[in-house]
């Protein structure tokens, strides 16, 4: 037996996702500590996940959820590498400030 | 028969190429032998052409042989053709014969010079160019040879490249020749426009249809080229400076052959000149003026080669005089004898210079007659031939030109007087030179620096060639004695019929007067320089200073041409070239650097900037996509 | 009644999401930011449940909040959590531009989705019981999306190796002949 959707429509979830994405983008652009940048990046990824799940519910198929699980796994890998970089940087006594890391300056 | 002419042309070119390509594989002596051999082969080719022409009838003696089509552009066609006719064979024989002797002489003269191979390559190139000039079947090939002899002259005058004065003299010669080349080119342009071709036959056949001003301009342009190449007034100042080159170069190029190319041009294109009688008179007048002026300047020169150079200028004035009057055969005959004795004089002077380790100033010489008897007798023969004393060569050729002048009305008589004055001056300056160098006591310089070769006065290559030329200067004139026999005039008649027929009394008068004046000049020279107690030389200060400064021609040209040209080029450089052209290049470069630097400011190295850029562009792109769709 | 309840839960979860998101980017102390992010993840899990995606919600809590955030907290603890005073000195041109960019993105997303899919979004599909269940997820992973499954595994392996390499001490490189950076000097 099929169940109809209760509560707000999918578009409301999409609005929440958009706001989360914008917030995460703002955080990436403004913060200077690489840790916080990574956290903001996580917010953006989760916003994308929310949109995927919402659409999956909208279509009634499970593909969006599969995608969302893959995104979660990829996000986890990315966090591993990013945190590894940050730890290596701090071990080399490099300042943890993205504004100071401009060695590729032209 | 024609192949003889092609052999004559190709042989020196082959030698020049072989010496150039052979490089160090060819020994220095070997280069000299090769060049001499090639020139003698050219002489054999010329002789073959000559003898085969002899075997033809007098009317059938003009053969044009075209190798291939050289220029074919639009309506103008020109082939690489060789003309064998009496005039060209005469020149071929002179060029290759005297040239071969002089190149042989150079083997001894230039021995030991580190750049000998380059010298012989240039000499072979010159012989080829001169032969191309005289053998060319159309005016374009003549012009090609003309330009190439100018090039060879430049290369050889500046042969000793370390000498600043030599380089300057080479440039001067080339630039003045270029002026003549320009006028010739302009004449050719008019010819092409009016007649459509530059082949001798076509031009001479159609030039009757040309209007008055056109033919005068053409003749004037040709005369300009001849004047530049033959160092006549007013384009004469390069010839004395050209003595910076080695002595054999002066002998070959600036006495025997190249400077006579102007005379050849006038004789070859005489139909054009005959249509422009004013220009012909101008040519004769320039010749007369030059011969007097050069004679005067030669009186005060102290460098032995410069005396001979001014003498050359003067004698070519005689040839111009003859050609301008229409006595073409006489002019050519004088060209031939002049080649003999002038080359002889240069080469004998070269032996003296060689023996005195390069010294050319006559004031340091003296008393060489006992030390160098062979050279002294050769020099004497050459001098006597130059002055025109019977029975030596110059007598027969020069006097017949003077006789021809008498047949041309009052203007001719004016030129006749100038020619006679020139004869007196010739005797004077020539024997001044002889007595100063060979007469008197040995100077201190000579005592110090004279060194013997040990086995005679010079190497065999030098003495043998000088002896040959001395023989030619002694007996070469006997080939034509105008009142009695004139094979030269008859030989050249199909090509250049003379316009004047001096009567016998004119011939005798001219010969007698010229002989007397020549002897008079010698006597005065002996009084002033050669006698045991020489009279003091009369000096008039302003005249002497004017002559020493060569009548201020160099200064005048410097003011009139050189300084304005330099000023103009400096102005152009400052206001046009540097800001506009060099500045443009620099501006472009600096502009590119600035643009690049501006762009490089985008690379801040900050992650945040890059992310901001990505986010902003994403925003913009999304708008674009939405709006466009 | 059920609908009303769902609405109330949605409001709480949505605002919790947004608020914690803003908190993450606002706190100076990274420790507080990390905690805010955990809150964010929890709210998101609730939202997933409302969307009938139970398995994803559970995976979110277990993997994200349970593993990734724990890793974050470990690193923050190791690094000492130095603050970076983000809001000192007033708004710079960078932050203004960032606000502008973020705002633009937000507006655009809403506009685009509204324009393109606005009409169709009001008709949700009706779903069966097995929607969002582990059985369905597993079946999809192993049949339709097998490639994604495999690639994700490889990426996880690579990330693990990378993490180990990054975390290892720098070896002495005498045998390779290259200069060694002295400790304490920036590269």
Biggest pleated-sheet summary of chain A: none
* Share in β-strands of chain A: under 5%
| Number of DSSP helical runs of chain C | 6
Q: Whole-number radius of gyration of chain C?
A: 23 Å
Order of helices and strands of chain C: HHHHHH
The whole-number mean of residue pLDDT values of chain A reads 88
Strand elements of chain C, count:
0
* Backbone structural class of chain C: mainly alpha
Radius of gyration of chain A: 18 Å
Question: Helix fraction of chain A?
Answer: over 70%
Report the helical percentage of chain C. 55-70%
Distance between the termini of chain C: 63 Å
What's the shape of chain C?
Answer: globular
What's the total helix number of chain A? 3
User: What class would the helix/strand composition of chain A place it in?
Assistant: mainly alpha
SSE arrangement of chain A, N to C: HHH
Question: How many beta strands in the DSSP annotation of chain A?
Answer: 0
Poorly predicted spans of chain C: 173-178
Low-confidence stretches of chain A: none
Oligomer: heterotrimer
Instruction: Note the main sheet of chain C.
Output: none
Secondary-structure blueprint:
The complex is a heterotrimer of chains A (106), B (629) and C (187).
Chain A: H1 10-30, H2 34-59, H3 63-91
Helix pairs in contact in A: 1-2, 2-3
Chain B: H1 2-22, H2 28-54, E1 63-73, E2 76-84, H3 86-109, H4 116-135, H5 139-157, H6 164-195, H7 200-206, H8 212-229, H9 238-241, H10 247-256, H11 261-268, H12 270-275, H13 277-298, H14 304-325, H15 328-355, H16 368-371, H17 373-387, H18 393-405, H19 409-438, H20 444-449, H21 460-475, H22 487-492, H23 504-530, H24 541-548, H25 553-600, H26 607-628
Antiparallel strand pairs in B: 1-2
Helix pairs in contact in B: 1-2, 1-4, 2-3, 2-4, 3-4, 3-10, 3-15, 3-21, 4-5, 5-6, 6-8, 8-11, 8-13, 10-15, 11-14, 13-14, 13-19, 14-15, 14-18, 14-19, 15-17, 15-18, 15-21, 17-19, 17-21, 18-19, 18-23, 19-23
Chain C: H1 2-26, H2 30-50, H3 54-79, H4 93-117, H5 134-142, H6 146-167
Helix pairs in contact in C: 1-2, 2-3
């Amino acid at each position: 037996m099929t169940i109809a959707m209760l509560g707000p429509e999918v578009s409301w979830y999409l609005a929440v996702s958009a706001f989360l994405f914008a917030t995460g983008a703002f955080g990436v652009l403004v913060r200077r500590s690489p840790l916080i940048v990574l956290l903001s990046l996580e917010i953006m990824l989760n916003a994308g996940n929310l949109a995927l799940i919402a659409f999956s519910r909208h279509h009634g198929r499970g593909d969006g959820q599969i995608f969302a699980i893959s995104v979660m796994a990829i996000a986890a890998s990315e966090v591993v590498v990013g945190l590894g970089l940050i730890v290596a940087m701090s071990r080399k006594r490099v300042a943890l400030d993205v504004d100071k890391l401009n060695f590729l300056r032209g | 028969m024609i192949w003889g002419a092609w052999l004559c042309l190709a042989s020196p070119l082959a030698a020049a190429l072989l010496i150039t390509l052979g490089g160090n594989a060819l020994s220095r002596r070997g280069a000299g032998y090769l060049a001499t051999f090639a020139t003698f082969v050219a002489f054999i080719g010329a002789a073959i052409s000559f003898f085969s022409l002899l075997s033809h009838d007098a009317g059938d003696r003009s053969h044009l042989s075209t190798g291939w089509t050289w220029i074919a552009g639009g309506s103008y066609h020109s082939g690489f053709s060789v003309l064998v006719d009496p005039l060209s064979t005469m020149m071929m024989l002179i060029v290759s014969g005297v040239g071969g002797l002089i190149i042989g002489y150079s083997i001894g003269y230039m021995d030991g010079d580190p750049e000998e191979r380059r010298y012989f390559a240039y000499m072979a190139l010159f012989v080829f160019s001169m032969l191309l000039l005289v053998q060319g079947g159309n005016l374009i090939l003549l012009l090609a040879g003309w330009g190439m002899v100018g090039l060879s002259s430049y290369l050889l005058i500046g042969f000793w490249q370390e000498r600043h004065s030599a380089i300057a003299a080479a440039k001067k010669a080339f630039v003045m020749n270029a002026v003549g080349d320009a006028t010739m080119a302009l004449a050719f342009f008019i010819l092409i426009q009016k007649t459509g071709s530059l082949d001798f036959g076509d031009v001479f056949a159609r030039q009757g249809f040309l209007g008055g001003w056109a033919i005068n301009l053409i003749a004037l342009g040709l005369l300009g080229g001849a004047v530049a190449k033959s160092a006549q007034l007013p384009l004469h100042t390069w010839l004395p400076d050209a003595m910076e080159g080695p002595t054999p170069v002066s002998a070959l190029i600036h006495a025997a052959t190249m400077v006579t190319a102007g005379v050849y041009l006038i004789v070859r294109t005489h139909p054009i000149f005959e249509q422009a009688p004013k220009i012909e008179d101008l040519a004769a007048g320039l010749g007369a003026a030059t011969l007097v002026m050069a004679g005067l300047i030669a009186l005060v020169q102290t460098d032995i080669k410069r005396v001979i150079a001014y003498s050359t200028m003067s004698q070519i004035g005689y040839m111009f005089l003859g050609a301008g009057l229409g006595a073409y055969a006489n002019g050519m005959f004088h060209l031939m004898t002049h080649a003999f004795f002038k080359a002889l004089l240069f080469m004998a002077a070269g032996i003296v210079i060689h023996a005195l380790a390069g010294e050319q100033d006559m004031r340091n010489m003296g008393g060489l007659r006992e030390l160098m008897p062979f050279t002294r007798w050769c020099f004497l023969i050459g001098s006597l031939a130059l002055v025109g004393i019977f029975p030596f060569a110059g007598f027969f050729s020069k006097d017949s030109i003077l006789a021809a002048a008498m047949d041309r009305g009052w203007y001719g008589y004016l030129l006749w007087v100038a020619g006679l004055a020139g004869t007196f001056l010739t005797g004077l300056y020539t024997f001044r030179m002889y007595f100063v160098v060979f007469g008197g006591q040995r100077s201190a310089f000579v005592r110090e620096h004279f060194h013997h070769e040990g086995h005679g006065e010079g190497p065999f290559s030098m003495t043998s060639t000088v002896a040959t030329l001395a023989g030619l200067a002694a007996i070469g004139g006997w080939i034509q004695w105008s009142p009695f026999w004139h094979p030269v005039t008859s030989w050249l008649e199909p090509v250049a019929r003379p316009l004047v027929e001096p009567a016998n009394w004119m011939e005798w008068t001219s010969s007698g007067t010229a002989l007397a004046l020549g002897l008079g000049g010698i006597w005065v020279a002996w009084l002033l320089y050669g006698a045991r107690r020489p009279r003091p030389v009369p000096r008039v200060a302003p005249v002497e200073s004017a002559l020493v400064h060569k009548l201020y021609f160099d200064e005048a040209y410097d003011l009139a041409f050189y300084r304005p040209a330099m000023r103009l080029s400096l102005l152009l450089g400052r206001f046009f070239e540097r800001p506009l052209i060099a500045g443009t290049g620099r501006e472009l470069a600096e502009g590119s650097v600035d643009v690049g630097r501006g762009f490089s400011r985008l690379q801040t190295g900050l992650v945040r900037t890059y992310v901001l850029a990505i986010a902003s562009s994403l925003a913009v792109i999304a708008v674009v996509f939405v709006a466009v769709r | 009644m059920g609908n009303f309840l769902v609405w109330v839960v949605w409001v709480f979860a949505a605002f919790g999401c947004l608020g914690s998101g803003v908190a993450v980017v606002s706190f100076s102390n990274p420790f507080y930011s990390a905690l805010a992010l955990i809150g964010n993840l929890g709210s998101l899990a609730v939202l997933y449940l409302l969307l009938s995606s139970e398995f994803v919600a559970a995976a979110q809590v277990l993997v994200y909040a349970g593993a990734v955030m724990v890793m974050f907290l470990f690193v923050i603890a190791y690094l000492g959590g130095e603050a970076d005073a983000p809001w000192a000195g007033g708004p710079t041109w960078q932050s203004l531009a960032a606000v502008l960019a973020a705002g633009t993105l937000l507006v655009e997303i809403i506009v685009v989705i509204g324009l393109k899919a606005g009409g169709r979004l009001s008709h949700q599909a009706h779903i069966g019981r097995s929607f969002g269940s582990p059985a369905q997820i597993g079946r999809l992973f192993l049949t339709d999306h097998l490639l994604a499954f495999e690639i994700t595994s490889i990426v996880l392996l690579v990330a693990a190796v990378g993490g180990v390499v990054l975390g290892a001490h720098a070896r002495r490189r005498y045998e390779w002949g290259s200069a060694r950076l002295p400790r304490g000097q920036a590269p």
